[in-house]
Design goal:
Shape: globular
Structural class: mainly alpha
Keywords: Glycoprotein, Golgi apparatus, Membrane, Signal-anchor, Transferase, Transmembrane, Transmembrane helix
Family: Belongs to the galactose-3-O-sulfotransferase family.
Radius of gyration: 27 Å
Number of domains: 3
Membrane topology: Single-pass type II membrane protein
Protein name: Galactosylceramide sulfotransferase-like
GO cellular component, one term: Golgi membrane
Strand order of the largest sheet: 2-1-3-4
């Protein structure tokens, strides 16, 4: 064996010294001699955003263990899917995104949503103004409706009459300051309150009572979430006035008796309270509760905007002011944020694996469905989601891409038109219609649609054409019309 040349030996020693020095420096910088694995007791926990004065999305999340799937894994849900659902939709909390998920569920599974006969766009909020009135509704095709998805003041008795006794009740809450930021932008409150200057939200929070004299509700800033969930307006006003008299950081060391009673009652009536700041985690909880498949909860965000108030810096003193002005909503949010994480803790270690898997597949779907630079030959290909312990195998098709991107008014109109066609018994078709044989001048004619002008107003042609194929009203073999790439994969329609 030849002796090692001195220069090579020197290089080897230098390399080994560099590696050892790097390891030692890493240990010194981290203060640890080994990789840390968080236990259940000491893993990072959620800190409310108003305490840290930073967006809730930026707060620390629990650690997410990586779960590798065996090659022969099988999906065994162990329960029957449930479709009776009451969503108590609160304002500016991300509820439109969840409403769109429920729209799609109703559309693809042919369910009945509680819906007004009126085709005006304002009908989406009509229940909030005057409640659910039987005479204004499209009747259910069975004994009861399946889903409540629109804004309304929560009333258990009325909702139960509409859905029957076995419905699941859920709602969605948001960190109160984040909710105010969204509300302030969406309803143009700076203009309504005649506030000018570079920081209108901060100016408002210096003296909110000076600007907002409205009763609690979606267009007012005092306790809108509690109001949506049925808390009396007079009591909310009185509680806010009492809190505003005190300059302490937290007026109530614990909720007043009326607030405690309200929280106790609403907790007993809701099966799940979702948290907007953890929307994906909330959807996985909903999926498990309802025994749905992964495909049922895929989504695109709806009504998500970038706006100045979202980034406007709010001082700690103004945050304290908002706690008093919005006092009941803070108690409500803190209670359900705590119970949310208690529920997550009981899900087992595979919960975070499922959340990670869901996020990955939702991103795959979004990337596939908005793919613009695609070859024509690839336009009709499907995206495969393989079976795992959390989902059955399924395909994401161009048709699904079209449906998942329907605007909210298009969804409402196509569902409404489907219900109207059901009750026009003479217009029922047992097989697809041949537009050429029937000498139809347009696809926007009866019996293909009942409210054809409204369909034309609210849906693109590709969306409508996909609907006609999906409901088997026309056959692909009987028409020269076919959905284009923009009807399936492609940009999201610019209407909502």
């Amino acid at each position: 064996m030849k002796p090692t040349p001195p220069f090579c030996l020197f290089q080897s020693l230098l390399l080994m010294s560099t590696v050892m020095l790097g390891i030692m420096m890493g240990m010194l910088l981290t203060g640890q001699s080994q990789i840390r694995v968080y236990s259940r007791e000491d893993r990072p926990t959620y800190i409310p955003a108003e305490v840290t004065n930073r967006p809730a999305e930026a707060t620390v999340k629990p650690s997410e263990p990586v779960h590798k799937q065996p090659a022969d894994v099988k999906y065994t849900p162990g329960c029957e899917p449930r479709t009776k659902l009451a969503f108590i939709k609160t304002h500016k909390t991300g509820g439109t995104t969840l409403m769109q998920i429920l729209h799609r569920l109703a559309y693809l599974k042919d369910l009945d949503i509680i819906m007004e006969k009126s085709t005006n766009h304002g009908s989406i909020n009509a229940f909030y103004n005057h409640g659910i009135k039987k005479e204004d509704l499209i009747p259910p095709r069975g004994k009861h409706y399946d889903i409540l998805a629109y804004h309304t003041k929560y009333n258990r008795e009325i909702t139960q009459k509409a859905l029957g006794p076995n419905a699941t009740y859920i709602t969605l809450l948001r960190e109160p300051l984040g909710q105010l930021r969204s509300q302030f932008n969406f309803y143009w409150m700076a203009k309504s309150f005649k506030i000018s200057g570079p920081n209108p939200l901060a100016q408002f929070l210096k003296d909110p009572a000076k600007y907002d004299h409205r009763s609690p509700g979606y267009m007012a800033t005092r306790n809108p979430m509690a109001s949506d969930l049925g808390f009396g307006k007079k009591e909310l006003v009185a509680l806010t006035e009492e809190a505003m008299k005190n300059n302490e950081e937290v007026y109530f060391p614990r909720p007043p008796a009326k607030v405690e009673e309200f929280i106790r009652n609403i907790t007993s009536q809701l099966d799940l309270t979702m948290i907007m700041e953890y929307f994906d985690e909330s959807l996985v909880l909903l999926k498990r509760l309802m025994c749905w498949d992964l495909q049922d909860i895929l989504y695109f965000k709806s009504l998500s905007f970038n706006y100045k108030a979202k980034e406007e810096e709010i001082s700690e003193d103004l945050v304290k002011m908002h706690r008093r002005w919005d006092v009941v909503d803070y108690f409500l949010y803190h209670h359900f944020n705590r119970t949310f994480w208690n529920r997550v803790e009981k899900q087992g270690d595979d919960f975070w694996g499922e959340v990670k898997h869901f996020k990955e597949q939702n991103l795959r779907m979004q990337t596939y469905c908005v793919g613009e630079n695609i070859e024509k030959t690839d336009e009709l290909s499907s995206l495969v989601v393989e079976e795992t312990k959390w989902n059955s195998r399924f395909l994401i098709t161009p048709e699904f891409c079209t449906v998942v991107k329907y605007g909210q008014f298009c969804f409402m109109t196509l569902l409404r038109d489907r219900y109207f066609r059901h009750f026009k018994k003479s217009r029922k078709t047992s097989k697809p219609i041949d537009p050429l044989k029937t000498k139809m001048k347009s696809l926007y004619e009866k019996p293909l649609c009942e409210i054809c002008d409204i369909v034309s107003r609210d849906c693109t042609f590709n969306e409508y054409l996909t609907h006609l194929y999906h409901d088997k009203l026309i056959s692909r073999a009987k028409t020269s019309f076919h959905p284009s790439g923009m009807g399936g994969r492609g940009k999201i329609a610019d209407h909502v």
